[in-house]
Amino acid sequence: MLIEIAENANTYTPLGPSETRIDTDRFVLWMGRGDGPGWNVAQRLRLGPDEVEDARAEIHGLLRERGRTACTWEVGSHATPPDLVERLLALGLVDDEPTALAIGMVLTEPPAAAPAGVEVRPVTTLEQAQDSERIAAVAFGGEPRPLEDWQPDPANVAYLAYLDGEPVARASAAFGEHGVTLFGGSTLPAARGRGAYRALVAARWADAVERGTPVLVTQAGPMSRPILARLGFREVCEIRILLDDFGAS
Fold first, then answer.
1. Model-level pTM?
2. Of 40, 46, 125, 213, which is most buried with the most CB atoms under 10 A?
3. CA–CA distance, 183 with 111 (Å, rounded to integer)
4. 92 and 124 together in one domain
5. Do 12 and 61 share a domain, yes or no?
6. Burial degree of 100 (CB within 10 A; 0-12, 13-18, 19+)
7. 51/137 same-domain check
8. Is residue 227 one of the residues assigned to a domain?
9. Are 7 and 78 in contact (CB under 8 A)?
10. pLDDT tens, position by position, 11-62
11. Kind of pairing, strands 40-43 and 70-76?
12. Does residue 219 fall inside a structural domain?
């Protein structure tokens, strides 16, 4: 089950207030708060060799009904058919650059403790949510998203790490039935190397234990993968991420 969650995170995480999920026996289509391809994800792909084009057309139709014209396909190690990536590339999909490969990782033992001097707090106020968005925008590029209707969600929690009283890193966690899925860990460049990322992992582990699901699951890119390995995470699967921009027509 943990491998399944690591491969198909959005299939098992609790939905936020602006998220939708369509679950079929052939695919799961998760739609988030935005129109960009990263907010529209096809995953848990269990297709027959003759079903790929029809499934893609169905996904396009579901997205177009909602005014969306691009998505990503997350093809995990256990997706079928085994040559699904090659079939999708032949249909015109491309690697989702700059990072088209994610590694599913799982932690089932306590990580290293947070370093002294780093304080982690869950985001509970609009001001904290704005700080979190600002840090994410610096780390990942783009603009902070508007938060006029923001409300705390106990199933999807953001965290801030503070150094000398200033917020310098953020991360989030989705608390599911089988474990906790980690997302969006990022640290301001000036604060890197001082343990903020490690402190955010430790805080989310502590909350996972408190909720009775002492398991952390995540999909790691090339920057976070070595850090997570040092903290005790194990690699359990691979996810190839493909961009499908099919336009309005």
1. 0.89
2. 40
3. 17
4. no
5. yes
6. middle
7. no
8. no
9. yes
10. 999 998 889 999 999 999 999 988 889 999 999 999 999 999 999 999 999 9
11. parallel
12. no
Q: Are residues 86 and 9 in the same domain?
A: yes
CA–CA distance, 136 with 184 (Å, rounded to integer) = 8
Find how far residue 98's CA is from the centre of its chain. 16
Are residue 131 and residue 98 in the same domain, yes or no? no
What is the chain's length? 249
Residue 122 lies in a domain: yes
Complete DSSP assignment for the chain: -HHHHHH-HHHHSPP-TT-EEEE-SS-EEEE-SSSSGGGEEEES-B--TTSHHHHHHHHHHHHHTTT--EEEEEEETT-BSTTHHHHHHHTT-EE-TT--EEEEEEE-S--PPPPTTEEEEE--SHHHHHHHHHHHHHHH-S-PPP-TT---BTTEEEEEEEETTEEEEEEEEEE-SS-EEEEEEEE-GGGTTSSHHHHHHHHHHHHHHHTT---EEEEE-TTHHHHHHHTT-EEEEEEEEEEEE----
Same domain, 20 and 90: yes
Expressed as residue numbers, the domain containing 67 is 2-102+239-245
How far apart, in Å, are the Cα atoms of 218 and each of 81, 103, 105, 207? Answer: 24, 8, 5, 16
Is residue 140 within 8 A of residue 224, CB to CB? The reply is no
Q: How many angstroms separate the CA atoms of 6 and 236, rounded?
A: 8
> Does residue 54 sit in the same domain as residue 133?
no
